[in-house]
Design a protein that fits this description.
The chain has 238 residues and is α/β, with parallel strands linked by helices. It has one domain: Rossmann fold. 33% of the residues lie in helices and 19% in strands. The strands form 4 sheets. It has a 6-stranded parallel β-sheet with strand order 2-1-3-4-5-10, with helices on both faces. Strand 4, helix 4 and strand 5 form a beta-alpha-beta unit. Helix 3 packs parallel to helix 4. The chain is globular and about 55 Å long. The termini are far apart.
Length: 238
């Protein structure tokens, strides 16, 4: 299959391309290569587009909301307007989109979903908290594994391992689902329970969701079953 993956050099994109390139023809667009979705010519035709490019992070979005609107919403709207009428598009949304009023990042993902709703062939993948042996730098699991955790919050998060996430995306590539879909395990874990007992707990985090929990019934209908558990994973890293 001839597939475009935007954000193919990112944390999730690079792992996805590494898996898909064995049996597919992959074209990658990434901002680090000068491929700005807002300006790059979008003339090539694809059987499938997996749109992962964009800015992530709640706290960073509060500092620069305009950048999140430009890189997440406007870029995605342009991709949809060119390819949406004729091409199946799976795009990265977020569990944060369930409460878009909390921060600019969540709002940008929600607006992406609203734009996607105009095209029958789009599917917003609401990624929950992704981790693996080489987690995204500066995030909770990275700090925990490298002994750099300064504090935790009292939130609960649905952690999903990268391999399970990629399994879900591959299943969705062959599906006809539209709208949005959660990608997680359906089993939230208290973040503070994963950290050393003496880690300080920070209570003031008003811009973040208290709990995330994926509804994976649609994925289970496709045969999805998570193989990894965050608690077991962390115990194996010790």
């Amino acid at each position: 299959m001839h597939i475009l993956v935007t954000g193919h050099r990112g944390y999730i994109g690079s792992a996805l391309v590494n898996r898909l390139k064995k049996n597919n023809s992959i074209v990658g667009y990434d901002l680090v290569d000068g491929h700005d979705i807002n300006t790059i010519p979008l003339k090539e035709k694809f059987k499938l587009i997996i749109h992962l490019a964009g800015l992530s992070g709640v706290r960073e979005s509060i500092k620069d909301p305009a950048a999140y609107w430009l890189n997440n919403v406007e870029a995605t709207k342009r991709l949809f307007s060119v390819h949406g009428p004729d091409t199946r598009i799976l795009y990265a949304s977020s569990s944060s989109a369930a409460e878009p009023d909390l921060n600019p990042y969540a709002a940008s993902k929600f607006c992406m979903e609203m734009a996607g709703g105009r095209y029958r062939g789009t599917l917003g993948m609401r990624f929950h908290t992704v981790y693996n042996e080489t987690p995204r730098k500066g995030m909770f699991v990275d700090k925990l594994l490298n002994g750099k955790l300064e504090y935790v919050t009292n939130h609960s998060r649905d952690f999903i391992h990268m391999e399970d996430l990629l399994d879900a995306i591959e299943l969705l590539m062959g599906s006809q689902y539209g709208g949005t879909i959660d990608i997680g395990t359906g089993k939230p874990v208290q973040v503070s329970s994963l950290a050393p007992a003496d880690t300080p707990i920070r209570l003031d985090a008003p811009n973040e969701r208290m709990q995330t929990c994926a509804n994976i019934k649609k994925l289970e209908n496709l045969g999805f079953k998570p193989k990894y558990d965050i608690v077991k994973f962390l115990n194996e890293q010790k």
